[in-house]
């Protein structure tokens, strides 16, 4: 590689890095400053984080919103992984022509935009509200249910199952395990990395989901973190210190999970397009 | 006889077990995707406020073509699509080629830094960008300081600049995501191909267009289809950065559906018609992209 090319590469990549990282740094720095300093364009960290945090808790329902988001995301992740891995395993291990047809029909659902489903889903949950209150509009259950099963995750588990050594399943059956026993005792433990990747993707998507919660969760006590941030962001006289503190707190769980399991995440994304 | 019966029973048992593994997922997808989809199709031929809907034939579909807000939303969405998707894909390709250089140092650092925007939630980054692009926001402040502009740009209140702001925001969020896909495919290309091309006197540009792009074609197709579908569904950013304004100059189809259903007097029937417009657009654009990718063989 010629020297000039190398220098240009480093300059371009450094520029891309600065542009990518800058909004993050600004958000973190702003969370430690007073609103006035943020508007003045102060780019150095201050000492007002605790003050901003206290103000935030006093003005909005931060902790309940975090709890709602956690409840929704954890439930969605657990149910998603269970349902999708059972299906991905089932489609691959008990392969048949009719199952392949069903699988291909399920894949079509990936092309359907959520905006097209929003209104009918809202009406569906409206109807449910009248009979089973726990499942209806403005319940956390309603926020969870439509996003629990995605064709993408079933596809993802089916692809990974293709690489799974099937001889051990036979060994398990001979040792007297039931079909479900084989699944839970042999398949689940050996597929840990696949489950980890699926968990990151699902948790992050659920934690950051905005449109459906915006539609279905109406009362303030059911607010999730993205709804809270959106409301803070649309206020007429924004307190930048408070808003940035809220955004930092909202971004932290997803970012932490991502960095802890970064390797699995990249591997997981790769597995999905192979 | 006995064994034949046993095998038959066993096969039946296997069929039942096989289906029981996939039944929950299948029912859930039917209930939360296909059933609403059919519902939306029926509703798109109905009209009325709230839940009081009556059939009115193709009126909703005729209304689409005379609806200035719908036309604005389609125009904006197409602008986002034809400007943002190619720019982002080229940028991601370019960065991944730079990062794929075996002699480059600090690769891991650059890769993680450029991927970082993907960790943020769409709402959180939208709010950050809204303030960065404010009339007295940081971007204007910096541009003024380095004398690139003499007066602040009205990023969010000028129809042209508001679109640019949205495009910059989406590009920031998704370039790193696409880059990771290209990078992993580039790592599967044997480096000796490039060495051979270099020996034959191919320039860096020729190598890029004659080797890299053709080798990555399937993955470019994949990312351009997912980006197209993503752009056609754009909602969070526009809702939180500009609210669709000024004067519908940044409104998207998804946001219009939201407004029709939950912001204005609810008109679920017409909202369903507009939502079918997105479905049709997704199908058309996907077919075009498959065709374009196929013809270049």
TrEMBL record, chain A:
Source domain of life: Bacteria
Record keyword S-adenosyl-L-methionine present: no
A Pfam family of this chain: BPD_transp_1
Major location category of this protein: membrane
Membrane topology reported for the UniProt record: Multi-pass membrane protein
CC terms in the record's Gene Ontology section: plasma membrane
UniProt cross-references to Gene3D superfamilies, sorted A to Z: MetI-like
Protein keywords: Cell membrane, Membrane, Transmembrane, Transmembrane helix, Transport
Name used for this protein in its record: Carbohydrate ABC transporter permease
Organism lineage: Bacteria, Bacillati, Bacillota, Bacilli, Bacillales
